């Protein structure tokens, strides 16, 4: 009679094992999902080794292996994990429905232990759903922040690139002006050197003329005397002409003022 008042151990145990297996997978996936949210917030593609325990359990091996794969972008990894967790939650809910169906069987009344086990599974499912919603919000906020930071960095890089180009243009323009100034200065210096060369040539020519005249005067002594006489006569004529002009001016003034 005692054996007929209990559920068949094979069906019940199989359903319990299925539920526990799903809970174990959900625990690993949620741990990975939470680590991914933290990694995205730190600007990484996957969770760092510091976020994992020193001796990972068998439930976390798959999660750690997937976290170490940086070949997928964070958004794709988050979407994949979200789909997997949603599927596992649905499977766990179906498994709990199966366990609840066993409890509702009027032919085989369940024991209090079985009631407690189903209630515990339901509480675990509720905890998983709550943790999943929290992690999903964290991941989405981290992705939004990552995208915003990426846009800001892109704008900053574009602004810096534009500034660098503008600075280079200004430097090139300034260099062109300096080159033009140097060219003008070089042209002015060339003209000055040419003028100096002309002056030196003229001075040399005048020195040659003076030397020739001196040589000519030395060769013809009488010519020097004639030149001296001519100079004296010119001075005398100038004095006489000045006296005549002065006397005429005085007489004219006296005539006017009379």
TrEMBL record:
Assigned protein family: Belongs to the GOSR1 family.
Membrane topology reported for the UniProt record: Single-pass type IV membrane protein
Name of this protein: V-snare-domain-containing protein
Membrane-spanning segments: 239-257
Single biological process term from Gene Ontology: inter-Golgi cisterna vesicle-mediated transport
Localization per Swiss-Prot or TrEMBL: Golgi apparatus membrane
UniProt keyword Heme, yes or no: no
Keywords, alphabetical: Golgi apparatus, Membrane, Protein transport, Transmembrane, Transmembrane helix, Transport
Family matches, as Pfam families: V-SNARE_C
A single MF term (Gene Ontology): SNAP receptor activity
Domain of life according to the entry: Eukaryota
Cellular component GO terms, alphabetical: cis-Golgi network; Golgi medial cisterna; Golgi membrane; SNARE complex
Biased composition range(s): Low complexity: 47-58
Region (Disordered): 41-82
């Amino acid at each position: 009679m005692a054996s007929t008042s209990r559920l068949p151990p094979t069906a019940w145990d199989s359903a319990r094992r299925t539920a526990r297996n799903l809970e174990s997978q959900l625990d690993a996936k949620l741990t990975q999902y939470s680590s991914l949210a933290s990694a995205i917030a730190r600007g990484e593609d996957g969770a760092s080794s510091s976020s994992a325990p020193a001796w990972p359990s068998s439930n976390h091996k798959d999660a750690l292996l997937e976290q170490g794969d940086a070949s997928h972008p964070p958004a794709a990894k988050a979407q994949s994990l979200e789909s997997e967790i949603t599927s596992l939650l649905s499977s766990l809910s179906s498994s709990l429905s199966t366990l609840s169906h066993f409890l509702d069987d009027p032919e085989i009344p369940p024991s209090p232990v079985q009631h407690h086990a189903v209630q515990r599974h339901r509480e675990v499912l509720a905890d998983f759903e709550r943790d999943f919603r929290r992690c999903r919000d964290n991941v989405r906020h981290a992705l939004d922040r990552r995208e915003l930071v990426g846009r800001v960095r892109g704008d900053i890089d574009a602004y810096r690139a534009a500034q660098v180009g503008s600075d280079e243009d200004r430097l090139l323009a300034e260099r062109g002006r300096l080159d033009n100034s140097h060219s003008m200065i070089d042209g002015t210096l060339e003209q000055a050197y040419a003028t100096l060369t002309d002056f030196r040539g003229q001075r040399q020519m005048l020195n040659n003329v003076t030397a020739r005249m001196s040589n000519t005067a030395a060769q013809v002594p009488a010519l020097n005397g004639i030149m001296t006489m001519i100079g004296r006569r010119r001075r005398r004529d100038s004095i006489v002409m000045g006296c005549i002009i002065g006397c005429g001016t005085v007489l004219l003034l006296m005539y006017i003022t009379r």
